[in-house]
Write a structure and sequence with these properties.
92 residues; mainly beta; 0% helix; rod-shaped
Length: 92
């Protein structure tokens, strides 16, 4: 099977960038403190895939010694995909 030590490989780092933008709109006709705020929030803006280690597919051979076809197959990511959230907030 090999002579490499356990946990001798180090994977790439986790990269995730979130961004939030907002604009305040003061409306003096209604009240001096009346404010409508438009918000836009972006999660995982770069949409960089962060793959999970293949912990489910970690068997190389089955009980009969036959090679497993999906050994080491990466099937999941550790972060969610890009998401957008918009909101309208009213403050008075």
């Amino acid at each position: 099977m090999g002579n490499a030590g356990r946990n001798s490989l180090i994977g790439p780092g986790l990269s995730n960038l979130d961004l939030a933008l907002f604009k305040n709109n003061h409306i003096k006709r209604i009240s001096d403190s009346f404010n409508i705020q438009f918000r836009a929030e972006f999660f995982n803006v770069l949409n960089h895939p962060n793959f999970s280690p293949p912990v489910v597919n970690n068997t190389l051979y089955d009980a009969n010694g036959v090679a497993v076809t999906n050994a080491g197959l990466i099937t999941t990511t550790s972060t969610s995909s890009r998401q957008l959230q918009i909101a309208l907030k009213i403050v008075w």
